[in-house]
Amino acid sequence: MADSDRTVVVLGATGQQGGAVAAALRADGWAVRAVVRDPSGQRAQALSADGVETVRGDLGDPDSLRAAFSDAHGVFSVQPNSGQAGSGVSDEDEFRFGTTVAEIARSRGVAHLVYSSTVAAGPTPTGVAHLDVKSRIEDHVRNLDITSTVIRPATFMEILTLPGMGLDQGRLSFLTHPDRAMQFIAVRDIGRIAAAVFGSPDRYAGRTVEIAGDALSGEALAERLTRASGRPITYSRLPTTLLERDELLGRTAALVDNGRLVGHADLDALRAEFPFLLSFDRWLAGPGAGLLDEAFRSAGTGVALR
Ligand SMILES: NC(=O)c1ccc[n+]([C@@H]2O[C@H](COP(=O)([O-])OP(=O)(O)OC[C@H]3O[C@@H](n4cnc5c(N)ncnc54)[C@H](OP(=O)(O)O)[C@@H]3O)[C@@H](O)[C@H]2O)c1
């Protein structure tokens, strides 16, 4: 049960997942403390306006985390993506950030740590370093003497409207197979699920939960996008020539082919447990509507893999 006297520290709150988690925790009545690199920045200011305490901190600065976690009940841990071009974060940085957060949470007596990983994590390597680093962080978290929950989000629905996916040219090009389903989740729902996890620690302590809101093939995605936008959208999988040329994309596509990245969450069970979960249709009519409009206006090149 949420308690406004108890504080949950949220990392990455100026970003997608952390932002959604901070909003959902506030809605559930928690006190929320966001660790931000620039408290005077626009996003940090917006968090303050929404009643979130912001404290200056950096994942690379353990002292700042020690100070931020003081007296905290919970910590939501997410790391910037070491696989994202231009992020400036190496795989080893991501590992160090994730393990440092967990160790400091334990040493500060935090009651519940929630770590956001990826659907592709698991006991055997994928061969994609920025995904495998999350499996290593998961293991580290599980082996620490702290109550923890790992959530493994499916591919974000938001990724489908990024520049470079082709929507401005009337097509969607992604890794999904045209006729085989892949699971997706709305970022908003990652936040709501994390808040539900903090709200029911006995239920979620020690668990690893794969989370998704819908499962669609490439053709089904295009059909939903066509209906929502009123513009004809066709689907084509990213061309083989591109997958051969771009090693990371090629390896990631192979993980879709072998099932590792498509998601295997039990959607019926999740929808019963978290009735707010958005289908792709409902996301397109809700939080995704503005992003879809934007996608038709923004030409882009290259596939944004996150
Ligand atoms: N896209 C997908 O489909 C998908 C699916 C599953 C998992 N993931 C994983 O999700 C993670 C990214 O989550 P996201 O999309 O929510 O991230 P995001 O929107 O890119 O935001 C990153 C956040 O991390 C903060 N940050 C970056 N470097 C920092 C540092 N040194 N110290 C403190 N904070 C720092 C950023 O703060 P500033 O505002 O200061 O930059 C920002 O708040 C990645 O690990 C990715 O692999 C993605």
Automatic annotation (TrEMBL):
<dbReference type="Pfam" id="PF05368">
    <property type="entry name" value="NmrA"/>
</dbReference>
<dbReference type="InterPro" id="IPR051164">
    <property type="entry name" value="NmrA-like_oxidored"/>
</dbReference>
<keyword id="KW-0521">NADP</keyword>
<dbReference type="InterPro" id="IPR036291">
    <property type="entry name" value="NAD(P)-bd_dom_sf"/>
</dbReference>
<protein>
    <submittedName>
        <fullName>NmrA/HSCARG family protein</fullName>
    </submittedName>
</protein>
<feature type="domain" description="NmrA-like">
    <location>
        <begin position="5"/>
        <end position="245"/>
    </location>
</feature>
<dbReference type="InterPro" id="IPR008030">
    <property type="entry name" value="NmrA-like"/>
</dbReference>
<comment type="similarity">
    <text>Belongs to the NmrA-type oxidoreductase family.</text>
</comment>
